[in-house]
Amino acid sequence: MQVGPAVAFFHAHPDDEAIFTGGSMAMLADAGVRVVLIVATSGELGVPEPGVGELGDRRRVETEQACEALGVEDPIFLGWPDSGIDGENLSGFSHLSTESAADSLCAALESVGPIDALVSYDDHGIYGHPDHLQVHRAGRLAAATLAVPTLYEATVDREYLHFVETHVVVEAGLGERPIGRGLAATSLGLPTLLIDTAVDVHSVLDRKRRAMAAHASQLPADAPAFALGELNFGAVYGYEWYARIGQPAALDSLPRA
Question: pTM for this one?
């Protein structure tokens, strides 16, 4: 186990960490940085899997397997209920006060020791899921409360993805690719100009893919992402993007796209 100040990744559900930040997590771990994953919910309102009992329990195990593939510590689960993609669970994480959500994140961060940087989501929660929006709000408040030097907000470059196959959008639960002017005209992620840090994760892409595949309840072997050839998979998942608040930190030391 690495020692010293950590980079903490705060995600809404199991599999978000692999899809949006898995390569960055693996590269930081390879560089000797302590990487901590904190997950708000167990994702129990995700895609149900026939013949499987409690989906949340299954997804917790899948997250542990993903962390093993990425070479990072076992995840910390805050234990809040999944809100559902439309916020239909009124007891869910998205319906907490921002203060309550941030307090639980602060407690988790304090339990792991010094934090050099916190990673959460952009102001649209990458794609608008209510739990992702709460991650954004709670991440900002927790970073301010604990005086974390650097806050990275995970996002996607909507202008880049406009020109490649957008399976990342489908896997995130957004449905089909938008028609008309496409992703460049949507509120998905951020435009290129507003992205501070773009990380090239091709060197660990095999591990990112294994981490994604560990989430088999949501990303089965026949998922669109895994039907991509090696070149196209790399085009979609070989880069990870962040807006940064504060001074350059660990993610800025990784290979840039």
Answer: 0.92
